[in-house]
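Quick log. Single chain, no ligands specified.
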Amino acid sequence: MKNLMQSDGGKSGFILLLPLLAVGILTGAIYSGGHLVENPWLHQYFIPGLSGGTIYEVFRNTFVSLTLFTLTAFLTGLSAFGQPLGLFMLIYRGFGIGSAVSHVYALKGFHAIPEVLVLILPECLAVSVVTLLSVRELMRLSHGVFTSVIREKIHTDKTFRIYCLEFLVLLAVSFLIAVLTALMNYVFSGLR
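-> predicted structure:
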């Protein structure tokens, strides 16, 4: 998997991670069919009605959720055994997306379509890209650390400085996503 992740600039690795995100989405959708998902650890603030009542609360909750995920990915990448946790993180993020969309449809039926298309889907797509990039970078560095431990010599294509810069960019994109999500929730508050 490591060779595939680096052979074409990471495009194959990105695509190889998509099925895990899809598994999480499917699992979340099935789970929310018979359970309440009002806990933020389950819906991860993808449900507009549960993201906050004010523009500030929506921004804060979205940004904190994205930041916690990204920082967890950053720290996990520093571990020689971070790869399995990274794969679980993808499933977890997908679970939040699937449970949120399923919850809104269960509550509103066909009336949920505008809310899903305007408020949930754009945010989920943007968050999915940040999630996939975070986990891909986590796995690359974790693999390098693991190989370095096994072979007792440094074996990574990435410096710590570059790794930090990549995650700073992902945090900046997370900030932008949170701002846009808050604005969309404010502008289209009638859909909530």
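The first helix runs from residue 2 to 7.
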